[in-house]
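FAQ: What does the model actually see?

It sees only this:
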Amino acid sequence: MINFTKIFPILFSLIIGIGNLNGGDYYIYVCAESEDEVALIRFDGKKAHVEKRIPVGVWPLEIEGPHGITVAPDGEHWYLSMAHGMPYGHLYKYKTGTDKFIERVELGMFPATMEISNATGLLYVVNFNLHGGHSKASTVSIVDPDEMIEVERVETGIMPHGSRMLNNGMKHYSVAMMSGTLYEIDAMSMELTRTLSTSPPMKKGGHSSHNMNTMNHSKMKNSKKPMAMKMDHKMPPEKPTWVYPHPNDDLLYVVNNGTNNVVEVDVKKWKVLRTFKTDKGPYNCEVSKDGKFLVVTYKSAAKTGVWDLRKGKEVAKFNNTRKVTHGVSISPDSRYAFVSVEGVGKEPGAVEIFDLQKLKAVAVAEIGKQAGGIAFWKMTN
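And it is asked to produce this:
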């Protein structure tokens, strides 16, 4: 009898391979934070082309700072956080293709990274609060992207970042840099359900992570928002900046910028399983759709690392073309990693492209200053 469970993955790989041979194009949006621009990049498998530079924001004499960007699951719209508004930032909505501005909504202080739930259709934005006081917890804004209305605001930790959903859309995760904590929000109830310290396990069988599995905020008066967590202790050394789920939704990968490591978290057991020691200043990460590779940007080292998740080893490390490596987005076929690199001063930012099959750098496209937020749009044949 034919074992279809083994044949289907092989057929899928062959189909993807044929698509690549036919010369498909890859399209990526990337922010230039110090230019108030978003660039649309097209990669044809050999060269990267800047197809369009899209001016964003409404104040001609003020840098508003496009920071986080995401494309809707249906590919019809893209959303952008303008972080430097005073006192609050905004979420902007654009039409893909025409890149026409549609609408904006005011959020919290310094809205940053975001993603849309496949289950609820709602968009989750962390309010990073970079310029505010750093003694109080900040929030995650939950937005109806069709109506561009903020429907809820959930309190998490100090300087939250790395807003990501499980692939099934049922749980939202973020980390807080100055709290050293991973946060889980239930997509249906819009309530904070669990927190976990992002510190690695202790060497002698112990574990330094605190675990709040039984948080229940449903009985709080007049609000669904959880109470602020007191931050009387010193800032944890981990300074987590990013979280990303494995395609199987059983694992999360949390980047600890302050202690130069990435920790692997078991979603069900809610504990750290493995720790990957990285180069200096890891900042963002993403897992390829086939679950094989974890790509990590090293902001302080100006490098990009590729980790084999089965082996738990770094199998490639690339020197970036300029300093301050920022974000990463991997193509849906798991073939290419697109990495944004900020640059320094008046130096242009860049998108650098790495082939994950051949483990080599293949192309660079220069854009505006301080290239940061990056989001994959589509593949075409």
